[in-house]
Amino acid sequence: MAESELIVEAAGLEKTFTDFWMRARARAVDGIDFEIRRHEIFGLLGPNGSGKSTTIKMILGLLRKSRGRLLVFGRDPSDTAVKAKIGYLPEETYLYRFLNPVETLDYYGKLFGLDRRTRRRRTDELLDMVGLTQVAHRPMGEFSKGMARRLGLAQALVNDPELLILDEPTSGLDPLGTKQVKDLLLELGRRGKTILLSSHLLADVEDVCHRMVILYGGRVRAEGTGEQLLADTTHTVLRTRRLKHETVQAIDALLHEREGIALESVQAPRQTLEALFLEIVEKARLEQLETSGARSGGNIASFLREENEAGSGAALVDALVSAPQVSTVSTAPKASPTTASAPVQDSVLRELLQQPASSGAKPLGSDAPKSVPATQAGSPANVDQSLIDGLLGAPSASDRRDGARDA
Amino acid sequence: MSRLFSRIYARLDGFQRSRTWCAALSALITIAVMSIGIAASRTASTLHHDGELLVDALAQASVIEKNAVTNELLEQGTVTVSGRAYGSAELAPQWKAAFAESGRIERVTEVAAMLLSTRIPAWLPGLFIDDPQATIWASVGVVVFLNLLIWSGLFFQGLVTILLAGVAGGFAWYAGERNLSIALLGVPLAMLAFFLAIRIVLVAFDRRIGMLAVASTVIREAMSQRIAIAFAFVAIGVIPILPMTLDETAPLRYQVQTFLSTSLGVSFGVTAVMTLLLGCATVAFEIRDRQAWMTMVKPISRGRWLLGKCLGIFAIDAVFLLVATLAAYACLLEIRTRPAQDIFDAVAVSEEVLVARVGTFPEYEPMASDRLREMVEKAIATDPAIREDLDNNIRREIDVKRDLARQYQGEWLKQQRSIAPGAILEYTFTGLGSVSRTTGALALRYKFYSGTSDAHETYPVVFIFDGEVGWTDSKFIAAQTNVLPVPAKAITADGTLKLRIQNAGFDPDVGESGAFFDGGSTIMFDADGLELMHQVGGFESNLLRAQLVNLCKLAFLAVLAVCAASILSFPVAALVCFSIFASGSIAPFLAVSIAEYNIRTEDWAPNAFEAVIRTISTIVEFMLRPFGQAVSTASLVEGRLVSWGSVARAFALIGVGWSLLAFIAGLAAFRRKELAIYSGQGG
After folding, report:
1. A-chain residues within 8 Å CB-CB of B293?
2. Nearest chain A CA: its distance from B315 CA (Å)
3. pTM for the predicted model, two decimal places
4. What's the pLDDT tens digit per position in A130-148?
5. Residues of A with Cβ-Cβ distance to B213 under 8 angstroms
6. How many Cβ atoms from other residues are within 10 Å of residue B420's Cβ?
7. Which domains does chain B have, with CATH numbers?
8. Interface confidence (ipTM) of the complex
9. Three-class SS of residue B385?
10. Do A83 and B224 touch (CB under 8 A)?
């Protein structure tokens, strides 16, 4: 990737807080190096106090670095020209309590120098997107935390930013809002936006980020793509329709014969609470029940859907926007444009099961571990294709998975 | 019920947002108001014309000739012109005093005005009689005001306010409570004007400029947090109530001066306090509550952010002063319609208070340098204490000479301001060439001390002018400002006025032609205790200039508060700002106190504390002196000219110079400040 495509570049970045007498009080960031490239969704992971927010504040120019190099769009972070390209959602809502959503977005729009017509259009679209149209003229001070977060997200997008910085974006949001934010991030990522996502909610980062660093004590402890960091090379998970006991035994026998191992656990998965919640809300919405709070958001604001990349046509945009949304959050990132893993077909499993079981096959015993691997509840796209290919005697599909970001 | 009202209100509010509705209402209102205005203008024109006829008639009146006008005036208290009788029988006894020794009425215009006032309708302000064209302009003003209400979406709110206030005021008027009626009508109108002005400012600031957006948000904050509204009620809303508090038995001149002093003083003081509180709060709390983060991560520099804050507060200040000035002026017009105690009281209002005058001090003759040198040398040669100091090198000779010269010069000048009983001293006022050519009235303003200066006694004095003007005896109240009208013809062609003051009185009952008698004790006065005042401008322009000076001071306070709060927490910033404001306001008094604050130098160590106090006070007084000296309201109340020069000085020094210094210092510190704080677990 060319140097010019680096959006954020940090090298030996250090931040030491001092007291009134200039004595070092705490070293929040201790010589970290990382790069955020254009069109990348970058995750900043770490427990509380690990230096995530300090790093973000330095990128935003709210804090000055103590040492090291930090460039944003190739310039110093305090440069106002840099800030024109950034949208920021802080970990808590710091908006004016006396302004209503329309006034809030209008205010920030003016700071970006947007003309009145553009401000009005974007305000309407953003409020519709985050589901606050019904409360557009209520002062922000009357909002619940979740509603305030939605407004915070809207203000972060009012300038159609090139770099979107989100600090704990799903904090305070209900599952509906959380799903919407994740969908939005994925959509913006597809549109070519660069996103810096900071969170200690690992699922948030895992679901949407291309690359991430894990901070602890102000230092980078791990860095890489999701696949690189999360790949569990010791287990394989298969997911299919419910199997008969005999079928499971046959698979176990086959595994014993081919791999010399036994199934560790077999479970009938339950529907997740999140999926159930989303289903109930969707049903209520279809029944047009009244709610005084935030509505479920509408489509992504049209100005955010305007294609930035050359060669992409309006038809593609419409197709993407009108495409049915993924049913669960966890499946969404797996639909990465570069991955395109083929879903496992039932016919493949059927074929797999038709093979004779090994004589030494160990039946599914009661000593098998009951715990379910973290990835077991994933979609068919989670299935390790190499195992299937291996079982079928086909060539390894690993070549086809270059660049894939499956967890 | 409340739901019904809410629905009606919502419906009406939605209604007035329709452009068609606004256009129709605007046309209707314009036609109605202008029709009333034209009718009022006709009435005013008739009265104005009759006023001129009254002046002509009164100019012919003579107690020597005893013509018809004189007889009617003295017997019935009226004068008839155009078939209409002006005046009343109750006024008849006082007209005798209006006739001078020449047998004619000396102040024809004032007598005509008092006669005319008896037939002026209560609803028609006297201002319109003087200038019937003003009726049309006032109508235009009302039309503009109502149209602004209509187009700013405040018409129904304004209409309800005016109707409610009108009903309440009408009841009070009907009950004979004129002042209460004005208060009931004036307070809501003043507040409505304030809301309207704020709305106009917000519309004007609605531009895609970051600084204006910040300013606009400050105004919204001040309004939604009720800070500006609460202070506006005290600074503006209280003005229509003030006429109720005036003692109507006091001379009209003092009523006018008290009202002006209180209304303008309160509005400036309250606005200044609001400026400091709002300036400190909006910045300090925004940084503390982190809303500032959200703005600082947008493409706006810290300097522009601070400027936006200053601009927003300054805009509120400007609205405060504008509306307060208009309210005060409207009330002043009403107060002027009150009856004066006598003709001199009426004259004093129009020629001494509601004018812009400048003063000229007499020229004092300095001591001849030869004589001064001789006295100093003699003192050095003969005073053993001085010789001892010089011999022991306690003091340098040059210092001794300088101190002695000052002392003798001061005593010499003081002698010229002391008039022994029966003695006469002459004073010369020069540079009055332009004054002699004007028709504006001259007045000698003097403040004498005599004997024990008992405020409950009067002391005699005789003023003798050169030429045909002659002399006049008078009685003054010691230690208080007294005024003597001076005819312009007392000034010679070269612009000089010579005045002799005799410490004596005149008793007309002694002998056939009366006799002079010596005063009881020496008359003394300060350097500014004798001043010849002459009119150079009108009250309205003086009021405008006085408020511009106040606005310059408020601009500095706004910058000071914003910049202080950008680097300090709210309590500390507020403490600093209020200290500076208070010190600046009392700087002139502080200067007097410092001069009187003597340190016993022979015992230095125990007085180190006093020395530190004096040093600090001197520095503070020196730095903030211009702020305290720019007291335009006091000048306005005394009828003194607030010159454009003083406005320019206040603008350049306080409004720009000090503000710039405060801004540069604040910005330099603020740019170094890290807005975000450490939120981790270390440290």
Report:
1. 60, 62, 90, 94
2. 18
3. 0.77
4. 889 989 999 998 888 888 9
5. 107, 110-111
6. 13
7. 1-135 (no CATH), 154-358+542-677 (no CATH), 369-416 (no CATH), 419-527 (2.60.120)
8. 0.77
9. helix
10. no
